[in-house]
Amino acid sequence: ITKKSKIKKFYESNKIFIFSSILILIILLGSLSLYLESKEKKKILLSENYIQAKFYLENGNKNEALNTLKKVIFANDPTYSTLSFFLILNQNLISDNKEISALYDHLLENNKFEKELRNLLVYKKALFNSSFVNEADLLETIKPLLNTDTLWKPHALLLLGDYFMSKGENIKAIEFYQLVLSINNLHKDLYERARSQIVAINHE
Prior knowledge:
Elements: H1 3-58, H2 62-73, H3 78-90, H4 97-110, H5 115-129, H6 135-146, H7 153-166, H8 170-181, H9 188-202
Helix pairs in contact: 1-2, 1-3, 2-3, 3-4, 4-5, 5-6, 6-7, 7-8, 7-9, 8-9
């Protein structure tokens, strides 16, 4: 049996499999191409909507701006959804604290962020919520930062210290400030902030 006849025999025995594999590969490549093209078009559209919202704001049309920015947020794009959300905050387009907190939740639950960017959003949500939520809700919000090694952990501890200090619960406040002082290799400003708050409590 020659090499050529072996190849021919193999082809005859497996031609259905060969053609099926080629067809599947073509379909997969085509689907990937369409997906990437669709993703790029979505990104461009979100960019245009974000710019349009800023144009509305420049012309004093806050309602149209808010509606457009919300659409971008719910499109669940890590970049433009986050930019749109913080534009809403910076322009004070929403006055309902619960609605803003819900938008924080939506961002965190529906987008894939790098670790420290996600932690920053968690911290900002906790900072925002600290002015109106109860102790249990605040601790639940900030817990992911307390249970991991993150750049935002000392900031979270300071926030909790300030929260309890504002409530007159000085013992709890000092506990969190001391946790800041126990962390190694922090920026000196964070140490000084914790120390000065403890001194302020002890002199009350």
